[in-house]
Amino acid sequence: MRIISGKLKGRRLNPPKKLPVRPTSDMCKEALFNILNNHFNLNELQVLDLFAGTGSVSYEFGSRGATLINSVDGDMGCVNYIKKTAKEFDLEINAYKSDVIAFLEKHQTSYDIIFADPPYDFTLEQFEEIVRIIFERNLLDEEGMFILEHSKFTKLHHLTNFSFEKSYGGSVFSFFEFNNEEEQEEESIGEEE
User: Fold this and answer.
1) Where is this region: Disordered (predicted)?
2) What is the pLDDT of residues 180-189, one digit of tens each?
3) How far apart are CA 49 and CA 188, in angstroms?
4) Domain residue spans of the chain
5) Nearest C-alpha neighbor of 99 from the set 135, 72, 127, 69
6) Does domain 43-192 have CATH number 3.40.50.150?
7) Distance (Å, rounded) from C-alpha 25 to C-alpha 42?
8) Strands 171-176 and 140-151: what pairing?
9) How far is 142 from 140, CA to CA, in rounded Å?
10) Do 118 and 126 form a contact (C-beta atoms < 8 A)?
11) What confidence category does residue 170 fall into, taking pLDDT thresholds of 50, 70 and 90?
């Protein structure tokens, strides 16, 4: 595992073997950040990394200049590893040990990007709950994007605010954004006049 781009490009990550994680592969991370580069200037972003695990996605955002990165995981070993690695890499990453749903229900900050990589055995109801809380509580900026990583056997395109998905091997990224249908309708009406 390594950092793919930015000021820390090429730095290797060596998390303890005992951490209960399934890290996002380097190939998937590269594909994800290629998509995000087309939608955002990654400098100055505020990012929330849920089920952060080893923190590899958080480090990618930090390497590319994100100014606020909050990482949340339920495992203390993961949180300690993120804190230690962020310090080594001189990155401003806040790591929190918390159940993700409990964190989202209490949290107030709005983010440009929220990334979540829950366990692959998550139920459809659990995925639905995360999406619902993020949009109901306005934790995502109006122009922001929420990305959920999941197994190819999980289908999320029926959920509110679903935008598009991209598959990479057995992994899928589902992207959620605030619905812009009204804006698109207004633009098309303006073009007709």
Assistant:
1) 1-20
2) 544 434 443 4
3) 36
4) 43-192
5) 72
6) yes
7) 20
8) antiparallel
9) 6
10) yes
11) confident
